[in-house]
């Protein structure tokens, strides 16, 4: 799959490379939500808040401070996402007793909605129109504008983030997350600080969403309030549910398929494509609640195995 | 000074008074049985001690510290462990991972992220599984175990953090006679380093393994003493006869 992704810009027309880059950035965003929901069981209905806040933050850096260096923009975007998630996560998750799923999902939803309204109403942020004409990302004196170079940049970042997430979820920390997801109350009785674990994952998710948001802002060349809002937050939930939550690759597959299919449908069935897409999503969620990935991965593999059996034990086991 | 001292514990759910000034005292290395008719408040008292319920009034002291306001996590870190009445092993994880999950609860965040304690804990995981006669199935999913084996796994998990006090809520519920006997055998060795509070309906089982008993009736302590004292207690005999 990585090989196909690597060769793609060589065969695609320019406008399709731009589209493919956008999908990769969205996949990075989906990865952030998957970590938060699929691994830590936090229902974040406001993941776009971190994506959009970082997008706006780096757009302002470019507009008002003329900063476009990739070495400043991407860390800044990541940091904005991280801080926003720490603040919201600290408020929603770090009570003395565990907060309910409803509280957290409504809290994140409200955060995303409020940010959207704020951006629409605030003249400094461009109101309804957002911030247009963001200059290109730069590496030294070279510009990285949309096209194959940006594509490979996004793909490289997605690969690195994917590997880091994989390392995390397969570590002993990942085992603690598996426990958290399955039975939060139980692991608190073992002595785990369950809320702290959640807040940490929520913050990491925010950081990844922020990284994706800053890549997105410079790729599209403008930011507008929709990228902070509830609709965009829900879109990422669909990517992950469709592909299969709790598997990192599922989030990527879900994004690629949903975006790919919408692109194709909107070209060929101009009027009815959202209905077709909706029916398709419903079918998957009804008949494959664990997502498309469940066609190839069993439940055991999905959860993962953390302890390794030494060879002699493995042979001795029936 | 006793290990655990709960006094004046009351718990009111709306109009229902589940506990009315109940008390429980457990010494070091003591196996203490908590008995009484259905609805007498045994499980509620256990939950108030473990932190799963917040008592309406009363005080819980553990190892000379007032832990009444502690969360379950803080109580676990202070050396208290609870096995729930309903088995709550993590069904999709292997037995090995279930035990590892319990053992690594006290590892630091950095140790967890870089899996630094995995190797060190391996031998402990295997010896816990051995001790509870589950080693042969270490790498099967916990959901594939029989009910009795799941209870053992759960007891093993509760013991993993080397608690000073283990609270067991109906450990032999749903077990066959043979499984009950084995459970008694499995529990005996832990007396060397741990006290036990056990809620149980099977009076024979309680009599075999406990040193002292507390009898609850309608949310109040009816009697407390050694097994022999309780057996000869008139009012205790009465409530059990009444039930029969």
UniProtKB/TrEMBL annotation, chain B:
The keyword Transport applies. The keyword ATP-binding applies. GO terms for molecular function: ATP binding; ATP hydrolysis activity. CDD domains: ABC_Mj1267_LivG_branched. Residues 4-243 form the ABC transporter domain. Keywords: ATP-binding, Nucleotide-binding, Transport. It holds the Pfam family ABC_tran. SUPFAM superfamilies: P-loop containing nucleoside triphosphate hydrolases. InterPro entries: AAA+_ATPase (IPR003593), ABC_AA/LPS_Transport (IPR051120), ABC_transporter-like_ATP-bd (IPR003439), P-loop_NTPase (IPR027417). One of its GO terms (cellular component) is plasma membrane. Involved in beta-(1-->2)glucan export. Transmembrane domains (TMD) form a pore in the inner membrane and the ATP-binding domain (NBD) is responsible for energy generation. This is ABC transporter ATP-binding protein.
């Amino acid at each position: 799959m990585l090989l196909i992704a690597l060769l793609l810009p060589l065969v695609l027309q320019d406008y399709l490379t731009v589209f493919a880059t956008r999908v990769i950035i969205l996949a990075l965003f989906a990865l952030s939500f998957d970590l938060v929901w699929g691994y830590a069981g936090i229902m974040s209905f406001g993941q776009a808040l971190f994506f959009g806040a970082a997008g706006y933050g780096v757009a302002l850096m470019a507009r008002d401070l003329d900063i476009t260096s990739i070495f400043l923009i991407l860390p800044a975007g990541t940091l904005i996402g991280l801080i926003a998630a720490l603040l919201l996560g600290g408020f929603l998750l770090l009570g003395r007793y565990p907060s309910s799923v409803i509280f957290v999902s409504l809290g994140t939803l409200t955060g995303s909605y409020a940010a959207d309204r704020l951006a629409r109403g605030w003249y400094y942020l461009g109101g309804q129109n957002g911030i247009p004409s963001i200059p290109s990302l730069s590496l030294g004196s070279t510009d990285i504008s949309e096209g194959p170079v940006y594509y490979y940049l996004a793909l490289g970042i997605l690969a690195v983030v994917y590997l880091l997430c994989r390392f995390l979820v397969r570590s002993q920390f990942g085992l603690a997350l598996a426990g958290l997801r399955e039975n939060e109350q139980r692991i608190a009785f073992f002595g785990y600080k369950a809320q702290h674990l959640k807040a940490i994952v929520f913050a990491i998710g925010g950081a990844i969403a922020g990284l994706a948001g800053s890549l997105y802002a410079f790729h599209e060349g403008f930011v507008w309030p929709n990228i902070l809002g509830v609709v965009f937050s829900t879109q990422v939930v669909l990517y992950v549910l469709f592909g299969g939550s709790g598997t990192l690759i599922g989030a990527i597959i879900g994004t690629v398929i949903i975006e790919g299919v919408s692109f194709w449908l909107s070209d060929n069935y101009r009027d009815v494509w959202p209905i077709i897409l909706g029916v398709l999503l419903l079918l998957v969620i009804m008949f494959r609640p664990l997502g498309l990935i469940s066609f190839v991965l069993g439940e055991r593999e999905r959860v993962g195995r953390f302890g390794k059996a030494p060879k002699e034990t493995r042979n001795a086991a029936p | 000074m006793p290990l655990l001292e709960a006094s004046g514990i009351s718990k009111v759910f709306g109009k229902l008074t589940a506990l009315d000034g109940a008390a429980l005292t457990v010494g070091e290395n003591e196996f203490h049985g908590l008995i009484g008719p259905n609805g007498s408040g045994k499980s509620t008292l256990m939950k108030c001690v473990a932190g799963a319920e917040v008592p309406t009034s009363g005080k819980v002291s553990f190892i000379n510290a007032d832990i009444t306001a502690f969360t379950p996590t803080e109580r676990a870190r202070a050396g208290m462990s609870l096995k729930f009445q309903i088995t709550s092993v993590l069904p999709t994880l292997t037995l090995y991972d279930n035990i590892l999950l319990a053992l690594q609860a006290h590892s630091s965040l950095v140790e967890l992220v870089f899996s630094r304690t995995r190797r060190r804990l391996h031998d402990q995981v295997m010896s816990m599984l051995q001790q509870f006669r589950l080693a042969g199935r270490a790498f099967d999913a916990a959901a594939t175990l029989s009910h009795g084996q799941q209870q053992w796994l759960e007891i093993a998990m509760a013991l993993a953090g080397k608690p000073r006090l283990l609270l067991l809520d109906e450990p032999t519920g749903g077990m066959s006679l043979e499984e009950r006997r084995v459970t008694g055998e499995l529990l005996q060795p832990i007396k060397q380093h741990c006290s036990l509070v056990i809620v149980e309906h099977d009076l024979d089982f309680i009599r075999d393994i406990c040193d002292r008993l507390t009898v609850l009736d309608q949310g109040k302590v009816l009697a407390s003493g050694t097994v022999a004292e309780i057996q000869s207690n008139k009012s205790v005999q009465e409530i059990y006869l009444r039930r029969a």
